[in-house]
Amino acid sequence: xxxxxxxxxxxxVERYLAELHRITTRPWTIMExxxxxxxxLVKNGILQLLxxxxxxxxxxxxPVCVTPLHLIDKAVHLALEKGVILCSYGDMLRVPGSKxxxxxxxxxxxxxxxxxxxxxxxxxAAEHPDREVVFFAVGFETTAPANALSVVHxxxxxxxxxxxxxxxxxxxxxxxxxxxxxxGIIQGFLAAGHVCTIMxxxxxxxxxxxxxxxxxxxxxxxxxxxxxxHGSGTTRKRRxxxxxxxxxxxxxxRQSRGPQSGRADF
Amino acid sequence: xCLAIPGKIKSIESQYGGLVRMAKVLFGGIVKEASLEMxxxxxxxxxxxxxxGVAISLVNEEEAQKTFEYLREIGELEELMPQE
Lengths: 266, 84
Hints:
heterodimer, A: about 270 residues, alpha/beta, Rossmann fold, four-stranded parallel beta sheet, 12 helices, disordered C terminus, B: about 80 residues, alpha+beta, elongated
């Protein structure tokens, strides 16, 4: 794909970093919301490249590690039921329940399968009409539609032996919880591009307004700055302007507005 | 599970008796199936962002170019560009 190499031009990155050092005049503590961003910051050495007075704090937690204990217990219970095929994302299998993890249930003979997509679980259900297939559907806004789509697929295909155990969570309330913490030190967020691909950015304007903090939506691929962004149905990196008056009922206009030009407010 | 990865649509097919539109998407050397439910207009050769088996947005080269230009803008333009 074109334009990846341009983002990874070392000379450009060097000059961009020099500029970043030049304009960073006071300490910043910024939280990247998604583990994918953390991965990219570490893998590409961006943490070391940033000015020393910019501190990155890693995320409010992934949907896997914030899954309530009782739901993991339910998943384990279902997995151990006779005739059940329990499917989930690979990340979910090692998370301990109060008695055991899904991986341990698998070791005890449960039919637990790791899938890349919930849509694959519907296929398994169609192939095994004599079994009950349950998809343990965890995820943020990005993943919830795919989990729901699997139910739509099952309905369209007339598959009756498919169900989901849902545990979906939202990103903005997690961000607000971080900001509401009296001991909180977060002064800005890198929001996750693929969440905004699904949800748009409207939810972030009230947060920017209420807490007076900047939020930048980025993707995960390394390179120039935070990298090649995926977001909002486009691929551009968007800065949500702080102190922008909120105009109720004009969401569509806000949505269509392009990124603000001018100097980044680091 | 959390990542969304861009890939190129290799082919498009109907499944479950034409009720579901799926694409074979090429990620480097790996081909995976992805639902086109969210992108009914997607066609062969398009780049799409795929998350847990669902194509969630189109990624086009024009937008990538705009992104690049925006990055130049916020870095105050030409002074950050590589010397020709």
